[in-house]
């Protein structure tokens, strides 16, 4: 089957034919929102005796702080004329700031403890604000450039992994590479700043990963499962 035929087949299939990812242990209870129980006001966490850091206010501030870097990237979106992209970037910044401020205000007013708003919803709101301002993908040019860079690196990365003859060490090297790749995320203000100041290099990022134990560190259990 050719690539075109495969695309046609996938496009013709109804969404009802999709099945949950079989690797999920608990499909019905799975929620991609990490740390959802911390997306509640600090006062609520304090009253319930739970750790108060992070709290909703901290997450909101992270998204609020991201507005500047997203606005900067939108201003550089060459798919739109200069005047349009500047107006659109200003509109996005104003709209999304109002959205996160209102979410915080309502949550603090209700002292809501159900964690109904999480990272996933905030990311979707930010994307909605970008699209409402006329931007379809402010990261498209960056994706194309970095994909080409990644493909050029791939042979060396694979050769490096092949040098690990012990299965456990090889899997750990794979996972550290995944972490390094995940750090390259222009949804993060600090990473965006580093990118615009001179770029982010894969090997250097991987070498600078913090030493274990990590804040959430299930590496040994994962390696046990992968290597059994």
UniProtKB/TrEMBL annotation:
Residues 70-226 form the Damage-control phosphatase ARMT1-like metal-binding domain. Pfam families: ARMT1-like_dom (PF01937). InterPro entries: ARMT-1-like_metal-bd_sf, ARMT1-like_metal-bd, At2g17340_3_helix_bundle. Its cofactor is Ni(2+). This is Damage-control phosphatase ARMT1-like metal-binding domain-containing protein. It comes from Chlorella vulgaris.
